[in-house]
Request: fold
Amino acid sequence: MKLLKKLAIAACTMTFMVCNLAFAKFVVLDDVHFDKQHSAKNYKIVSVDNGIPTEIRLKAGNYGYTRMTVKQNKKLVYITDLLTEDNIHHMQRVQDQDSGRIFYLLSQFRHATAFGYDPVKGSWQEYINSKNYYAGYDKPHANLIVNKDNELELSFFVFGDGVPNHIYQFFWDNKANWFGYRDLGYYVFKDGKNHKV
Reply:
């Protein structure tokens, strides 16, 4: 009887652990929408990320690129040129609730990326780049956000009634020290919700 009880407790614990991984949640710390009045071509956010004072600056660069610079403790630690075949329209600073890690999600019309500091490697990383995922369309729009269910998702879409979105859902994998993902397939947005096609 004691063995059965121990097995039942172990099974419940394993079920909880698997469910916890499957439903990793993210919280939005900052949510910025850019437009003509509030441009990403000269934007700065200052915060304390992963215990480190951090400043991220977006500034218009040469040849249609937007330069992103990152300073930690007032020292320049990362520079990248973001492809701006179209303007950056949305940025979220998000935190994975399980690990406490903080990430920056940048969405352009046809491109989306996620950046963040990796305390294991001691450097900044580009974790997600929409160019590395199958979109299902020629020149689709890309959006990388934490949705209303606190899930991190990348969606590819084209405008039109009833046209399905291709959606990927991401979770932080502590063992891999990187994002894992699930290809959720195609959904149609209707009545305020995504419906599987």
